[in-house]
Amino acid sequence: MGLKQNLHKLKEKYKGTKMAPAFNALHTFLYTPNETTHSGSHVRAADDLKRTMNTVIMALIPCLIFGIFNAGYQHYAAIDNTLRLDPLGNFFTWDNFILGAWTVLPLVIVSYVVGLGVEFIFAIIKGHEVEEGYLVTGMLVPLIVPIDIPLWMLAVAVIFGVVIGKEVFGGTGMNILNPALTIRAFLFFAYPTWMSGDKVWVHGAKEMAGQPDAISGETILGSLAQNHEPVYSMWDSFWGFIPGSVGETSTFLILIGALFLIFTKIGSWRIMLSAVLGALAMGLIFNGVVDAGWIKDGSSFYGLMSETFWHHLIIGGLAFGIVYMATDPVTASQTNKGKWIYGFLIGFISVLIRVFNPAYPEGVMLAILLLNVFAPTIDHYVVRGNIKKRMKRLKAKTA
Amino acid sequence: MGLLSKKDSKLILDPLADNNPITIQVLGICSALAITAQLKASIVMAISVIFVLGIGNVVISLMRNIIPSKIRIIVQLVVVAALVIIVDQVLKAFAYELSKELSVFIGLIITNCIIMGRFEAFALGNGPWRSFLDGIGNAAGYGIILIIVGFFRELLGSGTLLGFKVLGDPISKTGLYAIGYENNGFMLLSPMALIVIGIIIWVQRSRNKALIEE
């Protein structure tokens, strides 16, 4: 008897009991359900919620694999700086992969086990089917945290993010804030020493601090915020051979993921494009301010302000946030015009926070959370504006 | 029959749970968010409000028939202000450090909606003894939530309770800290107080479904 029959039998056995949602979820996750609907309209589409989520996960897999290699590479390169001379040659090695897998996979496992555990418990208590919302969140979370974050902290944050960020609002599809970013924001405010600074981005940097063989793992943003010249070139940053959160370093792979999402029509190109434009606009404004001579070399904002405007897209987590998290269909604006405004403000505010608040070197998290809150308001005014316009047209016609 | 009649004891007991000023009426939230980072401050705040509301309700109740209704708000304000100044001065005299910590929030008891609310809703229409019980009850209901929130925020945020290091020493790494535990800095920020209160409301309403509004 195959797995499918077994699952089906289990499902039948627990039908109508409290545990039913858990078995239903397992069954439908792996196989198409064998029941058909009995009433109502039958609109058939292959891209249900589970397939949508899986598509996003597929778009994230390259980032995850790259992140695994990068975790190892950053660790070894920090110890032996000569490795950086030939990043490509020293990147895809077994050593890197084994160390990276050893550090990254536990993050993925904890994220999924804890998050899905909470989802299952809530589904059983509330008596509804398990919702698929956590599939993407669970993959995003390990990609946006520093490599050495203690697993219990991650677990606490995941519980907080899923319960307070999602379940209290009514579960998947009802949440106001992006759950993955809620989890990251929780970590950021609860355990700041593990989430920022120059010691958290490279595996082992924290333990070795203060010893003779201490390694530094400053990110480009961190260097710029302190007016240091970053040690990495823009090409390093584009390909992703830099320290940072686990999966967000490679702008190249994010770009591929973005094309994949746009091609499959899962991610909104309007949001991505307008967010890029917003970031460029803010970057240009800052460049203009520097060029006009209003900000002197010694100012604490000089480093980030004078950075060439398009570099902002490549450094830090901006690209990752825009492509994978700003486009979250639940928390983004729903109207097309609203998406332009929503995206533009995300890019704009991300760079603004980045430059003006050195305590939060990565502004994209806060910018997306802020705009998540405003998305319904934006939609409201877009819809109202449309109604007004059409009323006017109607009046002109009848008059 | 105990010390209080059934009706009177309801005045005290109701606000403690099923008609709690914070979790049910959602009043007095500001101070609950602001001063609950430490348990000690929460307790002092709770006692202060019990004092102000208990005495204030009696005073207003005694004067209820001679206050012209047009200026009753001003009269109420004068009464609260006088009581709050007494509390403030007592704290400054006997617990100076703590009064500095609570700073402006003792003065802001004046603006605590629970106090004006009870004056308006109860003391103006009831005798002094019942007003006194109502004042004590409501202030205690407020205080209980403050102390619960303060307990969790201090325990999880600073790892202490009333200043005692109950979870061990974070610097020399004893107790829980030896196995890698760390304090949750988010607990010390006001948004987390709001979330803790939200969780209390959640727990309370899921235990007593009658409280859920449509």
From TrEMBL, chain A:
Membrane topology: Multi-pass membrane protein
The keyword Cell inner membrane is annotated on this UniProt entry: yes
Transmembrane feature ranges: 56-77, 97-122, 134-164, 238-264, 271-289, 309-327, 339-357, 363-383
Reactions that this protein is recorded to catalyse: a ubiquinone + n Na(+)(in) + NADH + H(+) = a ubiquinol + n Na(+)(out) + NAD(+)
Enzyme class: translocase
Chain positions found as FMN phosphoryl threonine: 219
Enzyme Commission number: 7.2.1.1
Keyword set, alphabetical order: Cell inner membrane, Cell membrane, Flavoprotein, FMN, Ion transport, Membrane, NAD, Phosphoprotein, Sodium, Sodium transport, Translocase, Transmembrane, Transmembrane helix, Transport, Ubiquinone
Subunit structure: Composed of six subunits; NqrA, NqrB, NqrC, NqrD, NqrE and NqrF.
Role noted for this protein: NQR complex catalyzes the reduction of ubiquinone-1 to ubiquinol by two successive reactions, coupled with the transport of Na(+) ions from the cytoplasm to the periplasm. NqrA to NqrE are probably involved in the second step, the conversion of ubisemiquinone to ubiquinol.
NCBIfam families tied to this protein: nqrB, PRK05349.1
Protein name as annotated: Na(+)-translocating NADH-quinone reductase subunit B
Species: Aequorivita vladivostokensis
Taxonomic lineage from the root: Bacteria, Pseudomonadati, Bacteroidota, Flavobacteriia, Flavobacteriales
Gene symbol of the encoding locus: nqrB
UniProtKB/TrEMBL annotation, chain B:
Keywords tagged on the record: Cell inner membrane, Cell membrane, Ion transport, Membrane, NAD, Sodium, Sodium transport, Translocase, Transmembrane, Transmembrane helix, Transport, Ubiquinone
Reaction it catalyzes: a ubiquinone + n Na(+)(in) + NADH + H(+) = a ubiquinol + n Na(+)(out) + NAD(+)
Membrane topology qualifier: Multi-pass membrane protein
Membrane-spanning intervals of the chain: 43-62, 74-96, 102-119, 131-152, 185-203
EC numbers, comma separated: 7.2.1.1
Subcellular location: Cell membrane; Endomembrane system
Source domain of life: Bacteria
Record flagged with keyword Iron-sulfur: no
Assembly and binders: Composed of six subunits; NqrA, NqrB, NqrC, NqrD, NqrE and NqrF.
Family statement: Belongs to the NqrDE/RnfAE family.
Role description: NQR complex catalyzes the reduction of ubiquinone-1 to ubiquinol by two successive reactions, coupled with the transport of Na(+) ions from the cytoplasm to the periplasm. NqrA to NqrE are probably involved in the second step, the conversion of ubisemiquinone to ubiquinol.
This protein's name: Na(+)-translocating NADH-quinone reductase subunit D
Biological source species: Aequorivita vladivostokensis
Gene coding for it: nqrD
